[in-house]
Amino acid sequence: MKYIDFLSDKASMTKLAYGDEGTDHTLSEAGYPALKQTDNPKFSWTNDVNLLYSPAFFGSVPAYINSLNRDNKVEKVWLELYGQAVENYLSPDRPYPGFTFGEFRPVLPKELQTISSTVNGQIDNILKKAIVSGDSYTADQAIADAQNVWKQVGGEQIDDWWSDWYNANKETAYLTKDLYTK
Predict the structure, then answer these.
(1) Backbone φ/ψ region at 107: left (φ over 0), alpha (ψ -120 to 50), beta
(2) Nearest CA to 45 among 16, 9, 4, 11?
(3) Ranges of each domain in the chain
(4) pLDDT digits (tens, 9 = 90+) for 48-79
(5) What is the DSSP annotation of 50-116?
(6) Chain center to CA of 24
(7) Residue 164: burial class (beta carbons within 10 Å; 0-12, 13-18, 19+)
């Protein structure tokens, strides 16, 4: 646990991801680190240990956004596209349809993972068939078939597990509503 605590610490994570201030990175006016050399091999091995790196340490805007050079033509265009994406896809008027992003969800128990991986492939094939079949296999029929497959392989066990998890964690979990407020 001490190792996880170390990797979750803002100072540790900043050091591993950006190195030494002044030598490897500079700080923007807003205090965000930016690598002096973006392809620095010194940091190529740190991706695994940076899995716990939280951009929340640098405010509501991801640190990499704030590290981009707005004077660079390519980075400026990328920032404009990013802004459009945020405007179009991170809006409470058009909320994310799930209860939270995958990275904020727990892993299903092993027995439910087996059911999930089996049924997801079957449902994926059913939906693809509806896309390419035109009027001969409608979206309504695909949905009904997908629901039947879900029930046949025990998908309702997954529904029950998620319902129990949600009821036990809804006050502390990072949910869709939090995407627009935190």
Answers:
(1) beta
(2) 16
(3) 2-89, 102-179
(4) 776 666 655 655 555 566 667 778 899 889 88
(5) GGG--GGGG-SS-HHHHHS-TTSHHHHHHHHHHHHHHHHHSBTTB--SSSS-GGGSPPPPHHHHHHH
(6) 28
(7) exposed
